[in-house]
User: What shape does this take?
Amino acid sequence: MPDQAINEMISAFAAGCMDKENFIHFYDYFKSKGDLPYKELGQLQTLSSMLPAILELEYPRAELKNKVARTLILMQDEIKEKIKVDRQKTIEVPPVKKEEEPVKHETVNNLNESPQYEANIQMAENDKGYKTAKEPEQNIYMNTNRLFSENTSRAPEPPSFTPVWIVAALLFMGLCTLSYFGYTSITELKETVAKSESNVASLKNELRNTSEFINRNSALIDFFNYENIWSVQITGSDPLLKISGKLFIAQNEKEALLQMNNLPTPSPEEAYQLWIVSKKQNISMGVFFIEPGSRFVKLSNIPVVPQEQIQQFKITIEPRSGSVSPTGLTYAVGFGNGTVPKQAGKK
Amino acid sequence: MSEYKDLPDIKLIEEIARFKSRALEELYDRYSPIVYTMAKKIAPDEKSAEEIVVDVFAIIWKRAGDIDFTQNCVYTWIITLTRNKAIDLLKRGRSPEATLDYYDNRYEETFILPHISHQIEQYDIRQIQMNKARIENALDKLSDAQKYVIHLAYYEGYNINEISDKLGIPKETVRSKIYTAFNMLHDNFEAEL
Assistant: This one.
C-alpha cells in the first residue's frame, strides 16, 4: 500500500473516524502487529489526545466521586470473579507440572542453594569432626577402662590402642559410604531436576504453540459458537485451477466465514469480492484478501438476505477497493440453498 | 492518600492494577476534571456526561491490570477511552436501535478500549497541562475547514463516510483533509517549542 494511503489510514484511526468495517480490518492488523509506522501512529494518537487539553476545565460535582466509589463496590463480585478466572488461567496452564515437576525440583534447589542447606552441611561437617575426633575416642577409652576393670583375674596389661583404630576405621568407612550415597543421591536429584526442567521447557513450548493456535483460530472458534450457521459449497469456475471452498453464514450475527482452497493470489492492485445474487441483483458481501498460509477469511457486517431468496454466491476479482457491481472474472460460485453446483460457468 | 500524591501516572496505574482503591482515588482527583469536561463536550446532557465519568473509572478499575502501560501512555489511554465511551453513547443515541451492537466485553475490548501504538511517547497529565498554550497555538494555526473536520471526527464521532455526506465532498477528500490537518497540527506543535 502506498505511504500516502497508510498515513491517511493511521490519521483516521488516531482521529477515531474510521468506518466500522475498515476499523475492524485495521484493528485486526494492528493486533497482529502488522507492518505499520507505529512511531507516527503514536505521535498522531498523542496529538489527538491533546485536543481536549485546551478545553476550559469543568469540575464534576463532589457527589460524583461517591457515585464512582459505589459503582466500584458493586463491581466487587465481578472483580473477584475476574481475579479467580485469571488465577485459574495461570493454574490451569501447566496441569502436568503438578505431577511431573514435583517437590523434587524445589527441594533440590533448596538443598543446593538455600542457607538451610549450607547450615545443614556445616552441621554435618561439625558432626563429622566431633564424632571422628572426640566422641569415639572417649567412648573407646571408657569401654577399655570398663574391660580392664571387669577382667580383674587377668594379668594387668598395658592399655592397647588397637580397638581405637578398628572403630576409627569403621567410622571412616561408614562416613565414606554415607558420602558416597549422599553424592549419588544429589547426582540423581540433579538428573531428575534436569529432566523436569526439560519437561517444563517442552510443556511451555507446547503451551506456547497451543496459545498461538488459539489466538490464530479464536475468530473461528468464536464464529462456530454462533447459532444457526448454514453452509454453502463453493466450486471453482475453472476446473484446471481446482478451486474449492465452503462458505459458512451466521446471518443472525451478520458474519460469514469463507474457507478457500487453491484460490490464486491476486495482483497487488486487485482483491476478491464475494457477492450474493438475489432477485437477479448482485449484493456485495465484502472484499477479502487471502493471507499467505491462511485458508479462512472472516467477513463482518454482511447484508441480510433471506436464505430462500439467495440464488447464488460468487467470487469475482475486482480492484482492491472493491466494486459496486461485479466487473471481473468469476472465480468460484456456490448456490444459495446449500447444494453443490453441477457446473459453474465463467462470467 | 499522600503516598500516591507524588506518584507519576504510570506508577499510579500500576497500583490500580493491584486494586489499590486509594490509587484510583488519586487518579480520579487528577483526571476527573478533564474526563468530565470531555464527556460534557461530547455527551448530549449532563446526566450522560456523569454516566460516562463513572463508566470510564469503572473500566480503568477493571481493566488496568490487563494493559501493559510500559508500552503505552496513561494520559493518551484515558483520554482516548473517555472519547470512545462518550462517542459510543452519542452514537447509540442517534442510531436506530436495530443497528446497534450489543455492548459486551468483546465489544468493549474492540471498540471502547484504546488501541495505542507501542511506540508512543509517555506523557503525564501534568506535562500536558503545562503544554496547554503550545497546543492552543498549534490548533489556532489550522484553517477553519481543518478545525471543523477534526471537530466532526473527534467530538461529533462522525466517520469518513458520514463527514463526506455531511459536507458533500468525496471520501478521498475527507481522508486527505484529516491527514493534512493532523500533519499540520504536528508540525505546528513542534514549531511551538
